[in-house]
Amino acid sequence: MVNNKKRKRILITNIVTLNPGDAAILQGMFQILRQKYGEDANIVVFDRLAAAASRYYPWASFRQSVFGHPPKGKFARVLQRLGYGHWNDRLRYWLLRSCVALIRSRLAFIPRVLIRQEDYSALQEYCAADVVISTGGTYLIENYNLWPAIYDYRLTLACGRPLVFFTQSLGPYHRPKYQAAFRNIFRQAHGIFVRDQKSWDHVSALGVGESNIVLGKDAAFVLEPNKAAASIQDGALTPKQKLKVAVSVRSLHFFDDPEKDLESNYVSCVVAMVEQAVREFGAEVTFLSTCQGIEEYWTDDAEYAQVVFESLSPDVEPYVKLDTAFRQPVEVVDAYQQFDLVIATRMHAAILGLVAGTPVLGIAYEFKLEELFHQLGMDAARLSTKSMEPEQSRAMVSDILTHLTDWQKKVRAVQADCSRQAAAVMDKLPNV
User: Fold this and answer.
1) Cis? peptide before 172, omega within 30° of 0
2) Which of 62, 188, 193, 260 is least surrounded by Cβ atoms within 10 Å, i.e. has the fewest?
């Protein structure tokens, strides 16, 4: 930890904490950042849905993000209505960047009359920050609109602040405008922390020096359960022990392939796994995901779980239930401790299951989960939405439940190492 009595000012940007997976990352980041910069570090989170996030996560201090939210002004709303909404962030960026130049030239009285008080206050936060950190996760991929984040990075660099990309999966970038934008941003960043080799390659392919790229583990791996884990006995399960399986599902809205009908096949495979666990192993199954119980968020995995539940055979339904409750990240860990297996589509359901010490069968809808399981030597417990089939899915569930003790030992072996690697990026953060 840096020995400096000055209280550090840390900004975390580009996050949507209403996604509880992002909340798990955020909580892990808090732990790492406070260890680096001191328990009294002033950490402010610029969230795209800050007001709602404050209600669900009172342990963090939230501000509304500078870019990426619905337009407020009359002119901006007209542009949006005419189909030129992308100009809102562009014009806003140039206005705010000009104001930053004035603030840094000690002419702050001019921006006071040019922009709203909320924006002026945000610029003061950016200019005064010791470090600006773009949150970890998976959001810098071309499936999403990347321009709000790009403008935010450019504004940070205009403020002259160290910019760090916390541990994440990103890329690849095929569109020339994105390639040019991120090449310039990454070259100026203090560090780009990535969770996997593919992301490393995607950054390196832009011509970014490898000394700026750091390979680590997701920040959520540093979390610890509130409750002590139940003791795991080496040896076979006794007949009196009822197997319990948790299942995390999610919509493939951004990741479907209509020509291959991936989503329909995905549902069929999840149904096959649930029915196999119930019929062949007498398991009790609970649909319990990380991303649920938040009405302000765009999706709720519990609602999607209802769709899967309705596809189950009648003889299986009595042994399956839906858990729709919202939980804090560590509460998800505590819940997953009560299960023998977590079947996880959400990456952070997989991570929090591993943090809980519970074997996980991962279903990859993009490369980040494939990379994680490969790094952990757990390819035998991973499926892909692009290639999975019902028979293969049933076989994998059977194999894991048959060899559950071996998988429990495997998880115990990787837990501590993942936590260590997640925290190790602390040494690469700027000393300010």
Assistant:
1) yes
2) 260
Q: What is the tens place of the pLDDT at every residue in 250-275?
A: 999 877 676 678 999 999 999 999 99
Whether 380 contacts 207, CB under 8 Å = no
Taking the whole predicted model, whether its pTM rises above 0.85 is answered as yes
Q: What is the CA angle 372-376-379, rounded to 5?
A: 80
Tokens 């020995």 sit at which residue?
Answer: 3
Q: In angstroms, rounded to a whole number, what is the distance separating the alpha carbons of residues 250 and 237?
A: 31
Question: What 3-state class would DSSP assign to 337?
Answer: coil
pLDDT score, position 254: 79
Buried b (16+ CB within 10 A) or exposed e, 43-52: bbbbbbbbeb
Q: Do 386 and 254 meet the contact criterion of CB atoms below 8 Å apart?
A: no
Please name every residue paired with 28 in a beta bridge, in sequence order, or none if there are none: none
DSSP tally for the chain: helices H, then strands E? 16, 14
* CA atoms of 259 and 431, how far apart (whole Å): 50
